[in-house]
Amino acid sequence: MIRSYRNFGHMMVEAMLSMKGIERYYEMSSETVKALDGINLEIEEGERVLLLGPSGSGKTTLLNCIAALDNPTAGEYSFNGNEVPRGHAEKMTSFRRDNIGYVFQFYNLLQDLTALENILLIQELSGGRDGGRARELLRLVGLEGEVDRFPAEMSGGQQQRVAIARSLAKAPKLLLGDELTGNLDSKTTAMVMEVLIKACESENITTVMVTHDESLSKYATRVVRLDSGIVTSDEKMGL
Amino acid sequence: MSMLLTKRLMRSLWRTKLRLSAVVLMIAVGVFAGISFGAYGTAATMMYDDIYSDEEGRINLADVVVENPGGVWNGTTSEEMCQAIRDEWTNPELELEFCEPRLTLEGLMFNLLDNGSEDMVHAVWYGIDEGKVDRVWMPEHDCCSGRLAAAADEIVLDAHAASGMGIDVGESISIAAGAGRMNLTVVGIGLYSNHLYFAEEGALYPASAGTFATGYLSASGMEVLANRSAGSSNIILIDVKGTPSYDLQSTDAVEGVELNAVKAQILEIMSEESDDPVSVYDQSGIYSVELLRADAEGANKMYPYVTGMIAVVAGITIFLSLQRLIQSQAKEIAVLRTLGVPRRSIMPGYILAPMIIGSVGVAIGTALGVWVGAPAMLGMYEDIMGIPIIGYSVPPSLVILNVVIVMVIVLLSGIRPAWQAAQMQPLEVMRGQHEVRLSSRRIQRWTARMPATVGLTIRSSIRKPVRLAFTFLAVGLSMLILGSMLLMMGSIEDMFGTERETWDARVNAPEGGEDEIIQWAQSKGVSYELLLQYPGSPAKSDSRLLSVNGLDQFSSTDSPTGMIHVKLKEGSFPVADATVTQVLIDEGSSEFLGWNIGDQPTMMFGSISKKVEVTGITKGEIFRTVYLHRSDLSAEVGLNATSVLLDLPNGVEVDSELGAISEGITLMADQDKAFDEIMDKQIQFLIAVEGLGILMAFGVLFNTLVMNLAERDSELATLRVLGAPINRLGAMIFGEHLAIGVIGGALACIFSVLGTQLLIDSMVQWAFFFTVQASLGSLAIIGGTVVLMSISLTPFGMWRIKKMDLVDSVKEFSN
Question: What totals of helices (H) and strands (E) does chain A contain, helices first?
Fold first, then answer.
């Protein structure tokens, strides 16, 4: 077990997520692309971290590594003191199932299932169906009246709120969002972000969101900027 | 047509190499099967037309045959009858060319075995003089050699018998025909019209090697063998100049009427000249000839359907693949259309693609068909039918026909997707409204109470109703090949199962010679029954042959007591000596003649007209059959029995003493052996055809299930990102494949039963009546095969998910 602590004055707080010297290289035809080049990052429980950076800065690659979707080329990564599996698809899936919620830019709802069923499906696949909690989550994101609607019958904002509810279905410790408002207008973005924050606070879930939209900084407790695969700044936000 | 657009399309297709290969393979199989079956059909037709023609070196089959089933005319009567026919010939349009009396008798051949013992083989012997009509055929082929029999102690042995017993020209053989043994020298090995298909009279399957023989003596030799006076005959062959048309007994259609008047007149002359009841028939009444004709006709009828069916399956696969391709390229097409690319630039590529795929498949199929399939089928024809194929090559018209059938179907399968691609509205595509889905709301209501995983499985399975319907159609058609074979083989086994007849030996008695055979049986403690078989017909004006069987006792297959049992479908057994003679008829006769229980039609026993009453209908007879009490039949035709059936106890065998007093002995063991041999041959063929059907059905299912999985890549990737374990996703895929397999399997069963019934209906004729027995076992195999194939693709689906790049796949949700 790897323990990582941060010094907060007189007390040592154990980090939920700890990355040390994370590198992710891709071998292209004639060169090696360094998508992540020695990332050091620790995130504590309850934080709302925004990963900001221009295109190609490595923020999505970092998010994929955090989600155990991608295998770092080098470096250490632990979650709640345990080394995160790499190179083993099922163990990585199991890690995500136990710890991670994920919200996609294009919602990725199953078109053949209603809003409620999209949530129930994840519960069933993760081992336990709980209709009451699924309805509660839809209520939490303000969609209690849309439970039986199919994704095609909902707006983009509504679909993303269903996706947020779905990501919370199995009570993850960490919720990840990849450009989750990238497909929404500013008004809908605000609504979705408020719903997300409310839901995460209610469920006590840590969040890490990737975006290139600076305006979302106001919803974060911490903003980490990346460029060319390295962290260029890491600042706490005063909320 | 833009070359760049076409090149792009070809590259897209190339990315689906596996599916592409399956489609090419199916097309190739379609052409291959079409050419192979077609070669069989065209060769059989050529042989039929060629062998029987009146050209030099060919058979010159008689146009009309007069048969005396109950006795032998002496030389004087024979000649008087021919003379009467010549004198009274009044037909102004047809000229009589030959009238040739012949003597033919059943008998035995004593075959000396390697261990020194002697085997008695059932045989038919013919006395053929110079043979102007119905000649012995000795083609220039490995099968045949030597010359015709000229002296009384010479014989031409049939090529089938010679090869079966390993006898060559120059060897001596010993034969009998109810009047003692005779040693003859084999001077030739040849073939004869009545035995080109080397089966015993009335048997549907060829005799096993060494269990049946036929030989062609000189007329004088035959008279010595039968101990008959010079010129004796029991058959008169009549040959008319040219090739007059005649009506086939086995069909409802009227194929020709020229010989009708001739046959009617000859029957009249025969009735005046002789008291013996006679049968008068044309070429359609000669069993072996009719069987070859029906075989050729069936094969020719069949092969366009086989080619078409396989091509339709391939066409459906192309259609579905192109639809999927267009769906996956919808946004690209929309972009091109938005940028101003005209429809006429979009469409040609999607038409060209299937034509190129089709051309590749056709080229492979043609090469395989001409150089592998056709020779194999002709080899099988020679092997099963026992007829040498001389001077045949695959006709170009056959290849062209198959290629055209396949390419037309391939073209048609590409037109609709190409049209759909060209008609795509950019805005609809961008909004995702271009996909046809079954009403999700309705299915949601049906599956709302189910677990979401089950609901998703069901909805995913039926989300593309057109694709699914076409898949089921293609699987059904593919399985029709397997199913029809299974059902037909099952039915044949059911019909020919030997439990219908439980005798060990059937001994043909010379006229009045049954008493001697009975004495032999009694001296050996052998149980026996008498059988009187006689040719009949439904009416005086209807020459279709009925096999009339006079039995000593009636028993059913359910409670067999006698030696011949009938399967009574309905009604009751006849009572002997009734006021109106009571009979059973088979269901084929009932269907063709419209005779039912209680009816009292007038039928013919030879040339004797007799009113009978139908008391029951039997099932399971291939040929049209009538059963009645032997005493009733005997009273009409003046014969006591034609055969004695023997139930041999342990330790008792037929011997040369019995052989000498009989006109041939048929052993049940030989029939069983012949049946087993033909079934073994058929099973090899069956396995090959079944493999073809299964391969095609697998290809169709593979194509559909891979498409289903491919278009759900992003969904499955999303579930994986959200933590769904592979075993749960595997269970979902398994459920989906199981559902498709179960529905597909049920439809395959329905297709098989209906298809086989249609097939049988097209083949059923007077001389060949058949019903399908859809046994649960056969249906379980058909349905189970589809289910098994479908679920066997689950590991492939799981492997595909495992190797999926989740990061890339989830992004595709936006596409």
Answer: 6, 12
Q: What is the pLDDT of residue B582?
A: 95
What's the number of CA atoms in the CB half-sphere (13 Å) around residue A176?
Answer: 22
Q: What is the mean pLDDT of chain B?
A: 83
Structure tokens at B51: 């062998």
Q: Which of A63, A79, A110, A155 to mutate to test the interface with B (most CBs of B within 10 A)?
A: A110
- Residue among B553, B552, B562 at smallest CA distance from B499: B562
Tokens 């034969």, located at residue = B175
Contacts of B731 in chain A (CB under 8 A): none
CB contact (8 A) between residue B724 and residue A93: yes
- 3-state SS class at B228: coil
The 3-state DSSP composition of chain A as helix, strand, coil percent (nearest 5) reads 35, 30, 35
- Please tell me the distance in Å from B730's CA to the nearest CA on chain A: 11
Domain boundaries, chain A: 14-111+171-236
Q: In angstroms, what CA-CA distances link B578 with B364, B613, B628?
A: 68, 9, 11
The answer to whether the beta carbons of residues B191 and B135 sit under 8 Å apart is no
Between residues A146 and B333, the one the model is more confident about: A146
Residue B182, both tokens: 């005779």
Is ipTM > 0.90 here? Answer: no
Residue ranges of domains in chain B:
1-56+291-435, 62-285, 441-498+669-815, 527-647
pLDDT digits (tens, 9 = 90+) for B83-120: 988 888 887 788 888 888 999 988 888 877 777 777 78
DSSP one-letter code for B133: S
B38: confidence class by pLDDT, cuts 50, 70, 90 = confident
pLDDT of residue A4: 47
* B35: closest CA of chain A, how far (Å): 46
In B518-593, DSSP assigns E strands to: 527-537, 546-551, 555-556, 565-571, 581-586
Give residue B572's pLDDT. Answer: 92
Give the pLDDT confidence of B368-417 residue by residue, as tens digits. Answer: 999 998 998 888 878 777 778 877 788 999 899 889 988 998 888 888 88
Strand bridging mode B212-217 / B145-146 = unpaired
Contact assignment for A125 to B453 by CB distance below 8 Å: yes
Give a three-class secondary structure readout of B675-723: HHHHHHHHHHHHHHHHHHHHHHHHHHHHHHHHHHHHCCHHHHHHHHHCC
**pLDDT, position A234:** 93
% of chain B with per-residue pLDDT over 90: 17
Class of A14-111+171-236 in CATH? alpha beta
Query: Which chain A residues are within 8 Å of B722, Cβ to Cβ?
Result: 96-97, 101-102, 122, 125, 166-167
Q: List A residues 169-198 in contact with B (Cβ-Cβ < 8 A).
A: 170
CB atoms within 10 A of CB B196: 25
3-state secondary structure labels for all residues of B244-267: CCCCCCCCCCCCCCHHHHHHHHHH
**Among all chains, which residue has been given the structure tokens 């009187």?**
B532
Three-state DSSP at B492 gives: helix
pLDDT tens across B516-541, in order? 999 999 998 999 999 998 888 888 77
Rounded CA gap, B580 and A199, in Å? Answer: 97
The Cα A47–Cα A64 span in angstroms is 18
A with B: how many residue pairs have Cβ under 8 Å apart? 97
Judged against a pLDDT cut of 70, whether residue A1 lies above it is answered with no
Distance from CA of A182 to the nearest CA of B (A): 12
Q: How many residues does chain A have?
A: 239
- The closest of A61, A101, A52, A64 to A210, measured between CA atoms, is A52
